Amino acid sequence: MPGYNTHRIFNYSAFIVIAVLLYLWKFQRIDLYSFLAFSAGYYLGTDFITPDLDIESKAIKRWGPLKILWLPYMWIFHHGQSSHNLISGTIVRILYISLIILGIYYVLFRSLPSGMIFSYIYVYIFIIGIVIANALHVILDALF
């Protein structure tokens, strides 16, 4: 399997290709906020919410002291199995960290967020960025 830096180089190279293609094709529906939402999701999907969070990896070390949040995930999922599933692995990681964030929010404020200050479309684009970054990780693992 490729190492952490190989995954990062591959993903960021693919990101440059995606950005150039979007520019060359001059997609009219892509505004700055959509591109930033996609970029943020892609970055998090490449460096923080990767399929390698189920092992003691550089990705888990990037979380610093917050890596403790991923310990239950490491105990439940085994490397290369469900965590490396192209779609469900990513969805499980997104749901897992979302539940933790909502749980912490609830403990701090004794309620859940009542409204969004931004459009849901940006949330979807953000998640698409994570999914694509994770898919490239899994594809690179499958190739080598």
List the helices and strands and how they pair.
Blueprint lengths: L3 H22 L6 H16 L10 H4 L9 H6 L11 H22 L10 H24 L1
Detailed description of the structure:
The chain has 144 residues and is mainly α. It has one domain (4-143). The protein is built from 6 helices and no strands. Helix 1 packs antiparallel against helix 2 (32-47) and helix 2 (32-47) crosses helix 6 (120-143). The model has no long low-confidence stretch (mean pLDDT 88).
Instruction: Say what oligomer this is.
Output: single chain
- Please state roughly what percent of the residues sit in beta strands, choosing from under 5%, 5-15%, 15-25%, 25-35%, 35-45% or over 45%: under 5%
Number of strands: 0
Order of secondary-structure elements: HHHHHH
Quick structural gist:
This protein has 144 residues and is mainly alpha-helical. It is 65% helix and 0% strand. The protein has one domain (4-143).
Notable traits:
144 residues, mainly alpha, 65% helix, 6 helices, 0% strand
